[in-house]
Structures are given as structure tokens and as C-alpha cells.
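Sample entry as discussed:
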Amino acid sequence: MSALQRLQEKIEQWKQDHEEIKRQNADLKSQLTGIAGAQEAQQLLKVELESKNNLCTTHEETIVTLRQELNEKDEEIEKIIAQVETLLA
């Protein structure tokens, strides 16, 4: 095999290697784009979760307040019932 043939074979192999590297590079760029999109979506989900968590906390506080008011009203009703029973007795 002549030196020229060996050189042509090496050049051909380099071309193939170069094409493979270009394909791998394109794949990696595609993966990076997907990762960036996933990170952006994850950030949006974190913001949404925080918002819903704050809303949930607000609702829990409202429930506690309403329960306290309900207990106070129950006590008032019990006092009124006791007064009515006293008046009827």
C-alpha cells in the first residue's frame, strides 16, 4: 500500500470521525436545550407551588379563626339556652 493510499484512508477516517463528532455535538446541544427548558419549567412549578402553599396557609389561618368564632358562638348559644331554661323553670 502506497503512502498516498494510506494518507487517503486516514483522511477518509478523519472525515467520518468529524461527521460523527458533529452529530454528537448536535445531540448534546439538543439535550442542553431540553435541560434548559426543563429547568425553566421546574422554576415555574416552584413559583406556582410557593403561591399555592401561601394560599393554603391563608386558608388554614381562616379556618382556625372561623373555628374560634364558632366555639364562641356555641358558648353564647349555650348561655342563651341556659337562660331560657331558667326563665321557663
